[in-house]
Design brief:
By secondary structure, this protein is mainly alpha-helical. The protein has a single domain, classed as P-loop containing nucleotide triphosphate hydrolases (Rossmann fold, 3-Layer(aba) Sandwich). Helix content is 51%, strand content 5%. Strands 2-1-3-4 form a four-stranded parallel sheet. Helix 2 packs across helix 5, helix 2 crosses helix 7 and helix 12 runs antiparallel to helix 13. The longest helix is centred in the N-terminal third of the chain and has 31 residues. The protein is globular and about 50 Å long.
Length: 374
């Protein structure tokens, strides 16, 4: 079985940008202030790097707004967006990359999520000359990484200053912010207004650049379909689930990996992280099950990770058929080629102690029962 590299063996270059390095000063400085500037000494160079980069980021953001701001504001989406939903480590990234093989659609790239405020100006240069800045594999699962690959739009929201629990990446030893925003009804009126504005702006900026319908993937959106329906009534949703016995340990590994390479704090936060992981699924899925009511079969389909891993071509065909996306014949040969290329890839094996498994299977009982994993 292929081994999965640990965060310690995947070395980020010293000047490597983290997911939150694209924050402008209006986001970065209040974040530092709110967390009392409590940066671990061993991570001071990371905090210094983003601060030093800030004037450039602010300038590019101002130039993009000056040049493209009016055009972005006037842009309309090209067709309803397609959202990929599911808990972290449920297979959303794999599904995202498979569906993005269809060039009729566009999706935000890693760089566009890293620098949402100025990607229209800076993406061509950085993606051409800056691939050395990031590793070519993700630390949590050894999947390919790169500036031009599809990425979670939640990182763009974080860098734009939207309320998101992903801000925990920066200060994981402190209280985790905005956990309630994993549910449609968890936003305050002010938070919701800001979130909707920034999210819609980002989608318009992507559409202005690509002029294609969008495929978007972000696990936190799983609990926000009530908001997404209100913004985009004709949106379509692909929801993927996975066995909790794999989901829980894999999610713990994900956050531990990200914290080791992304955060500017070093400390003990395992009990808090475990509580966050256990609570997040229930928060998202209580909202998801409530808000999915009223969506037609042509708008929402449920798929299982186990089926996707076994036969990605057949699962993608069922998605195209049920959601009436059309044009599956265009993507089918590409899916078959990718399946052949990655036939040797093995997912990591995860296990939990019996008492730990009993804990998360109890906490996630509704999810496990509804989707056939109890």
């Amino acid at each position: 079985m292929a081994s999965i590299e640990s965060p310690q063996t995947i070395q980020y270059p010293t000047l490597s940008p983290r997911f939150w390095h694209g924050m402008p000063s209006r986001v970065w400085l209040p974040l530092l202030w709110k967390n009392s500037f409590k940066v671990s000494l061993s991570r001071m160079h990371i905090a210094s790097g983003v601060t030093a980069f800030m004037p450039f980021s602010d300038l590019m953001g101002l130039l993009q707004h000056t040049i493209f701001g009016h055009k972005i504001a006037q842009t309309k989406l090209v067709g309803p967006p397609l959202f990929i939903l599911g808990h972290w480590r449920s297979g959303t990234t794999l599904l995202h990359e498979l569906l993005c093989l269809d060039d009729r659609f566009a999706s935000p790239t890693t760089f566009e999520c890293f620098a949402p405020a100025h990607f229209l100006l800076t993406e061509p240069m950085v993606t051409r000359y800056g691939n050395w800045l990031i590793p070519n594999r993700r630390p949590m699962d050894n999947m390919k990484a790169g500036w031009s690959l599809p990425q979670e739009d939640e990182f763009a929201l974080m860098n734009l200053g939207a309320p998101t629990p992903y801000l925990r990446l920066v200060f994981p030893c402190h209280e985790y912010p905005y956990q309630s925003t994993l549910a449609s009804d968890g936003f305050s009126p002010k938070e919701l207004e800001r979130w909707k504005y920034l999210f819609d702006w980002f989608l318009k900026a992507l559409t202005y650049k690509n002029q294609k319908p969008l495929i978007l993937k972000s696990p936190p959106h799983t609990g926000r379909i009530g908001i997404l329906k209100s913004l985009y009534p004709d949106a379509k949703f692909v929801h993927i689930v996975r066995d909790p016995r794999k989901l829980f340990p894999s999610t713990m590994k994900l956050w531990n990996s990200l914290d080791q390479v992304q955060s500017i704090q070093v400390g003990e936060y395992q009990p808090k992280l475990k509580e966050f992981v256990l609570k997040s699924l229930t928060t998202m899925y209580d909202s998801f099950e409530r808000d999915r009511v009223g969506l037609s079969e042509k708008q929402l389909i449920d798929v299982r990770y186990e089926d996707l891993a076994k036969d990605p071509v057949e699962v993608c065909k069922s998605i195209y058929d049920q959601l009436e996306l059309g044009g599956f014949d265009r993507i089918e040969p590409l899916l078959k080629d990718r399946k052949e290329q990655e036939k040797e890839y093995k997912t990591n094996r995860f296990g939990s102690k019996p008492e730990e498994e009993a804990e998360f299977m109890t906490a996630w009982h509704s999810y496990a029962t509804k989707y056939g994993y109890a």
